[in-house]
Structures are given as C-alpha cells and as structure tokens.
Design brief:
Layout (H helix, E strand, L loop, with lengths): L4 E5 L4 H12 L3 E6 L2 H10 L4 E4 L5 H14 L3 E6 L3 H9 L1 H5 L2 E13 L3 E9 H5 L5
Parallel strand pairs: 1-2, 1-4, 2-3, 4-5
Antiparallel strand pairs: 5-6
Length: 137
Amino acid sequence: MDCRPVALLGGACTLGATIAYQLAAQGYTPIIIDHDQASALDIVAHEPRVRFKSIPVLTIDVLTTTLSQAVSQLAPLTGVVQVPKNGERYMQLLGYSTLAQFCQADAACVTIHPHGEQQHSITMTYQIQTACNGLTG
C-alpha cells in the first residue's frame, strides 16, 4: 500500500478538518497532531483515513516521541502543514532541523497564516530539507 503521511500540526480545528479531508481524498494519510483530543476525534470519526496523535503536554520530548511513533507506524512524512494557531507554537518548539528527521528528503512544509476571521491563505511552501540548510532547530 502506498502510504503518504502528512502531519497537520495543530490540525484539530475546522480548517484542519477541511485540509485533512482533502488530503485523504487525494490518497494521503493525514495525521492530526494536537492537544485538542475532542475536536480531533470528531474529525477522525468522519474520515477513517485521518489519524490522530495526541500532545497531552507541549514539550519537545513529547512532540518528537509523537512524530517518531507516527513515522514508525506508517512511513516518513511526505509533508507538514502548520495550521494556525497551535501549529505555529508546535513548530517553534520543534524547529525545522528536528522536523526534517521525520520527513522524506523531498517533503514539503506549508504554513497557513490567517487574514481575518473567515479567510485563510497559504503564505509559503518549500521543501523541508532546503529550509534546514544552515539552520538549527
């Protein structure tokens, strides 16, 4: 089976659900990584291809353990989506260098920044390995 896991950092929200459903429809395996268990389980209940990994305590150790478990159960990540607002906090704690350890060589990272309450836009897309050149997490 072709498994193409994509992590949705902070994806337990309406926007995260929309992205997860679209990714699943395209044949990807979305993995919501968030502390909001109730919202995430609602999303997973509506789409069996979506997975959820809980972050009960926001520490670097918990984030890396969670990503390590996800990768060992599926495959290295093909992409990462940072969903506002929690995704940004998770990414700041994790760092690109650490994140790259869990990704395929050509994995993409997409950051979504909100503009207003109803409108969202994708403001940057790039390969994670490229982003790590010269950076430290």
